[in-house]
């Protein structure tokens, strides 16, 4: 009888120990995410709930973003808290694989099995070093923290890229912080970031079309769209070197599209670029043209809008 009692106690003790070990592994952590690419350093915040769910808080072009990754459902959601909107995509989408080094590593690991190359201690955690090779050369090297079953360092030797989780602080995290909050709206794309120079738009000259105007570096003009018309621009380089300018529509004080898609470079003096702005008063308040470098000549005219 005594032997049976001791046996039961041992079984119960082992069960409790295994449960405690499982809970310990399931605890989360916070860390600084440091991304180094060819000497350029970017810092973000990283939150780990479990091997399937994590969050990255970052800033892109002055806009605060939160990236929520759920590996169980294969879904990434990127939130813009200031606008209370989010976009949704697959973890294996091109945007996710290009912008998220962790999902890129997981995806490549499914195609090319990593080879273990011993253990190493990083950030006070025992890690297994795993290497993915192509034709005998290392393509990706990752250090997987065994306690969390997650990479805390990833390197791409050929591209001089390094991703590191530093100052790891083990702590219990709220699962609600890894979900889209109530009141957020799903959109097709996130609102464009507001450029630093947008503060100067109010003081810029508002021109009536048609017109011809030259603008030097830092110069800016604005044009109000007209219903039923497209704005036709011919922009020529009036500078001996290259000129770079942005021509983008604004709505409610924000570009309607990322300014990088509406920034142009004209390299030769006298070279011309023809642009058409189709956004009407319902889509935009203003078209803003700003010169970042060089000098340009702008010829603007209106043309009746054509049906698609």
3D architecture notes:
The protein has 308 residues and is mainly beta. The strands form three sheets. The chain has a twelve-stranded mixed beta sheet, with helices on one face. Strands 13, 15, 17, 18, 19 and 21 form a six-stranded mixed beta sheet that branches. Strands 14-22-16-20 form a four-stranded antiparallel beta sheet, with no helix packed on it. The protein folds into two domains: 28-186, Lipoprotein localisation LolA/LolB/LppX (outer membrane lipoprotein receptor (LolB), chain A); 196-302, Jelly Rolls, CATH 2.60.120.380. The chain contains three helices and 22 strands.
Rg value: 27 Å
Q: Which class of secondary structure composition applies to the elements? A: mainly beta
Query: Within the CATH hierarchy, at the fold level, what is the topology of the largest domain?
Result: outer membrane lipoprotein receptor (LolB), chain A
Strand order of the largest sheet: 7-8-9-10-11-1-2-3-4-5-6-12
Please outline the helices and strands.
Elements: H1 2-26, E1 28-37, E2 40-50, E3 53-60, E4 63-70, E5 75-80, E6 85-90, H2 94-99, H3 101-111, E7 115-122, E8 125-134, E9 137-145, E10 150-156, E11 161-171, E12 185-186, E13 205-207, E14 211-216, E15 220-223, E16 229-237, E17 243-251, E18 254-255, E19 263-266, E20 272-277, E21 286-293, E22 295-304
Parallel strand pairs: 6-12, 13-15
Antiparallel strand pairs: 1-2, 1-11, 2-3, 3-4, 4-5, 5-6, 7-8, 8-9, 9-10, 10-11, 14-22, 15-21, 16-20, 16-22, 17-18, 17-19, 17-21
